[in-house]
Amino acid sequence: MYIYNSGMYLKSLYANNFRNFRMLELELQPGKNLILGDNGVGKTNLLEIVYFLSTFGSFRTGENVDLLKFGEPFFIISGVYGDTKVKVRYSDKKEIFINGLKEVRLRDSFGTIPVVALTSNDLEIVDGSPSCRRRFINMGISLYNRTYIDTLSWYNRALRQRNSLLNHAKMGKVIKGIEIWEEQLSHYALPIIKARVDYIDKLIKHTVPVFNTLAGQKLELSYKKGGNYRNLKEQLKKMRNKEIERGYTLYGPHRDEIIFKIDGHGAKVSASFGIKKALTVSLRIAQARILNEVRKEEPIIILDEIIGELDRDRIDLLSGLLDEYEQVLIATTREDVQGSGDFNVYRIEDKDGTPVIRKGLKEIHSI
Ligand SMILES: Nc1ncnc2c1ncn2[C@@H]1O[C@H](COP(=O)(O)OP(=O)(O)OP(=O)(O)O)[C@@H](O)[C@H]1O
Ligand SMILES: [Mg+2]
């Protein structure tokens, strides 16, 4: 069912001054890789490097300066995926190099190394505000549709402009030209919702069976639109006075919502912690399957803990589901996860404040 492009995995990783790694050089294997180590040794930091090479951002901080090794002025990270080398250098700004050539626009190389990450933060997709669910959808689409990133940023620019005018009007100032922004919002909303409708169809197709395997329950996923997309321009015009009272735009894709129901009940309010975890895992696996279906490329799957937070049966089930990927990197403190499948085991240990990585008995990188 899935297309394997053999050789499409992360072959090597390099980092200099990233978090607690002064110098990291690591050869990686295809298949399921388990990164074991005590709390605080640098397991998440290692996965963060992989994620950063794909999205040029972190899954746990919005501030790139947090990634600089304490006291250092720059970091460099790179990875080789198939035949492609992606390198990022950051000092006060980010510079991206693909096969040695500097990229002018960051978003043109977004997702060159396709990565899907499962992290503890994912719980916010179920428990967080609607914006967390929109971010999840936006990220999923952006990994294969770069035009979407542009359209979304143009839409957001128009939204900021209109909101600013609404605010001025709220303060009693005379405003001009709001129709231009309404026209633009309406114009850009169309490709955004088209991509979202398409993505959510795919998401339903892939998430529902995975969730059923992991949780044995029935999941329904629906898309609640944030406006009248047949004629958003008219709607915005009609609601303008009400929106002036509020000072912001009440209708449009920035108000879209995704709803999860499990066995007929709202997941956010009714599902247990473990079942919410199973739901976020299913959503991420679906995201990976969609990437594979659309890009015909194997995303690298990274799991920061997660697996160790599930019960024994679900660890085995998830481990089985992960067999379909060319490369999976799993960080955990739990030694017993090894019993749930065939893993290449790496260990990170702290040696006088520096992380040292071992594969078997062999120390495979030096500082
Ligand atoms: N900018 C930084 N510079 C240097 N060290 C850092 C930086 N940011 C975090 N650290 C260090 O990295 C270590 C934490 O690493 P990380 O979060 O990867 O641990 P972990 O192995 O995932 O632990 P856990 O099992 O608790 O999740 C801490 O010791 C922390 O002090
Ligand atoms: Mg961690």
Describe the structure.
- The radius of gyration is 22 Å and the shape is globular.
- The mean pLDDT is 93.
- The chain contains ten helices and 16 strands.
- It has a seven-stranded mixed beta sheet, with helices on both faces.
- The chain has helices spanning 43-55, 123-127, 130-142, 146-170, 178-215, 232-238, 240-246, 267-270, 273-295, 312-321; strands at residues 10-18, 21-27, 31-36, 75-81, 84-90, 94-98, 101-102, 115-118, 219-224, 257-262, 265-266, 300-304, 327-332, 344-351, 354-359, 362-363.
- The longest helix is centred in the middle third of the chain and has 38 residues, at 178-215.
- 41% of the residues are buried.
- With 367 residues, it is α+β, with helices and mostly antiparallel strands.
- Helix content is 40%, strand content 24%.
- It folds into two domains: 1-114 and 298-367, P-loop containing nucleotide triphosphate hydrolases (Rossmann fold, 3-Layer(aba) Sandwich); 127-296, RecF/RecN/SMC, N-terminal domain (Glutathione S-transferase Yfyf (Class Pi), Chain A, domain 2).
- The site of adenosine-5'-triphosphate has 15 residues, from helix 1.
User: Strand percentage, roughly?
Assistant: 15-25%
Structural class by helix and strand composition? alpha+beta
State the distance separating the first and last CA atoms: 43 Å
Biggest beta sheet attributes: 7 strands, mixed
SSE run = EEEHEEEEEHHHHEHHEEHHEHEEEE
Q: Give Rg in angstroms.
A: 22 Å
* CATH evolutionary superfamily of the largest domain: P-loop containing nucleotide triphosphate hydrolases
CATH top level label of the largest domain: Alpha Beta
Ligands present: adenosine-5'-triphosphate, magnesium ion
How helical, in percent, are the residues? 25-40%
- Total domain count: 2
Oligomer: single chain
The CATH architecture category of the largest domain equals 3-Layer(aba) Sandwich
* Spatial strand arrangement across the major sheet: 8-12-13-3-14-15-16
Number of helices: 10
Provide the low-confidence segments as ranges. Answer: none
Cα shape: globular
